[in-house]
# Entry
Amino acid sequence: MNEVKPPKKPLLYYYGIALLLLLLFQFLAMPMISQARIRTVDYNTFVSMVEEGNVGSAEIQEQENRILFTDKDNTAIYKTAMVPDSDLTQRLLDAGVSTNGVEVEQTSLLGDILSWVIPIAIFIALGQFMSRKMMDRMGGPNALSFGKSNAKVYVKSSEGIRFSDVAGEDEAKENLQEIVNYLHNPEKYREIGASMPKGILLVGPPGTGKTMLAKAVAGEANVPFFSMSGSEFVEMFVGMGASKVRDLFKQAKEKAPCIVFIDEIDAIGKKRDGQIGGNDEREQTLNQLLTEMDGFEGNTGVIILAATNRPESLDPALTRPGRFDRRVPVELPDLKGREEILRVHAKKIKVAEDVDFEKVARMASGASGAELANIVNEAALRAVRDGRRFATQADLEESIEVVIAGYQKKNAILTDQEKKIVAYHEIGHALVAARQSHSAPVQKITIVPRTSGALGYTMQVEEGNHYLMSQEEIENKIATYTGGRAAEEVVFGSVTTGASNDIEQATKLARAMITRYGMSKDFGMVAMETVTNQYLGGDASLSCSAETQARIDKAVVDLVGRQHEKALAILREDREKLDQLANYLYEKETITGEEFMAILNG
Ligand code: ADP
# Structure
């Protein structure tokens, strides 16, 4: 899809050019025009011409220290520098030369006209140009077109995004294919009396390809595509957003069949909570949107797609049947999806033939489509930096770490003791994970500091897709989180600040087990917590009495404590391997899963 966009240059740029032209004209061209036809002669010649009666008229320009004069037929103009000459006036009178200066004005008449007309012409042209630019910016036919939608319009184009460019997300594509079919052949649907959903809501975490899917629908259907972000509707003046909505729908109906895409619809579609001092502008905009969506028939050929990461915050009026009545989840890609996305993006760069995309996809578990695209690009950048002509497996693997943990900190200097502690900490995680049957094997362990602040980390790899987790698996995971701290305790008998992130994760999991998953005998299957932000970090809010909260807190402490004990026991039992592995990691700084397993089983 090609966006139709006027070229943009700062206005100052045009002003500058115009001013420069003007100055050039005034200082160079004008004197040249007016003086081109004036001949310069010396004073003696002037005097002799006066005496011989060859001068018609003269003008004495004392301030400029010159005399302009014409020949006796008033055809040629001459100029001469003034020399102190007390007889000059007498001489002119004697020769009957008129000194009214008419000729001089005549000579510069053209120049004068030009010097007035040209600047005015330039300013008129500039004014015209500027007002046209203003119009373009405001997206309408006159400069005062407030309330125009200024939606970005993408025209039909053969090289637009297609479904094949969106890897994975098969269910979402299947769902949207129906829209494409409808736009291709609305008759078929009208015949049977079926009407298309007016609005389709794409929901999912950021970077999973919602915008791409919307564009792909337009690309497949080969129809115009209006794109606007929810926040663009909300303006400083009340009523402006509503008028933008009206305008957007008016344009869309004119261009039907077409697709209107509203990104981040939660910016205008939030629940109207009726509180005093609520956002009037937003509510008006939303009301207008609701009215517009009711206002057109299902079969006009305008399909509204909207994307959001926060479906739970949308106003129920917006999601009721007849408006956004279809919801298409666009989830984080699974293993196969990740591999496909990597392959799609790898087509844009040069990669070595032996790259194992499945392994890369496995390592990048939990990454979104946008992150995977970023990983591939980072790999290409790394290849260029190292002077290779294509990206290798190592480039891809390193760039996963770059995207997850930041760049390697080249000059972070850890003391020897710190490095030892980090090595034990990381091996602690890995060893506890490996000794618990259900924990995923370790892919890689490194103690090279990263710019994110991580001093080292253990990358675990999930073998396949995981949809359900058993209680035991979660408990093991908590034990793995506590493994790092446990190793420090076992070996050094003291603890460091390095475990803060582990502690946070372990606590989060333990709390979720009790308050949301019903995995505690004391509380049973009662929801104590509700997730408020499913796609953006999964924050939850407690909904129980203060007393229960205290009991939950105690249960969380007990649960994490039990797993911590388990980790300590595992490490004490395996102390020999712990030392061996930690020393190896300390020496090598980065070890692979295979090396780890070889030493563990050796
Ligand atoms: P969202 O709108 O969900 O936040 P976008 O559609 O803007 O995400 O995706 C951002 C970028 O991520 C895209 O430009 C694309 O490069 C990449 N991407 C995301 N999902 C996919 C996918 N399924 N296939 C290919 N590329 C994807």
The first strand starts at residue 2 and ends at 3. The first helix runs from residue 11 to 35. The two ends are 58 Å apart (CA to CA).
